[in-house]
Amino acid sequence: MSVADVIASIALIAGSATSLVAGIAVLRFPDAASRVHAATKPQLLGVVLLLIGLGIRLGSVAVIGVVALIVLLQMMTAPVAAHLAVREALRSRAGSPANAFAEASDGDQPRIARELRDADPDADLDADADADDGRGGP
Amino acid sequence: MTIVVLVSGLLLASGALAAAVRLIRGPGPIDRAAAMDVLVAIVVGAIVLAAAASSSSVALTIAVVVSLLGFVGSAGLAILLRRSRG
pTM to 2 decimals? Predict the structure, then answer.
């Protein structure tokens, strides 16, 4: 087993492991945007590592040409598709980033909304002023 | 080399299984599109792995076509969702 075979084997296993990690991340991440972010990784890193392993193993000029073509196409298309998907995911939330954060965690939505309101001093002051006006009115 | 191909195939299959679970369960269409992207990338990787295992470059043309089909599917779904929302 020569040095080139060892490098090709390492590249093949690393590319497959990247795909496995991306699959687990898509399964376990909590948000649509973060899932798309995780899904972009095997499209470039995993495929490129596998193609590097293949190119080292076969090593002919025609194979390296097709490998370069696939890498170039993945580099052009993967960010465009991810950008379109994430933009659609964020716009379908229909509202401010505060609403997006509050809806992102469906488990403890009131706590997140309260923290966001407390973190924004202007909104907090306005809410208190409105409450005082309502209470100290007629 | 056989052991390397076996280990890589098992890793790819595990990733495809996790992505398929997300494809079935995913609450929104964007989650399913992300899972589909991972599945397409794993299919391209499996074709490349098969080409490396058999030391023939015949299947690489299929990998080019599948990678382009994955882009068309994902981008088309995003554009279709934007158009249907109005």
Answer: 0.77
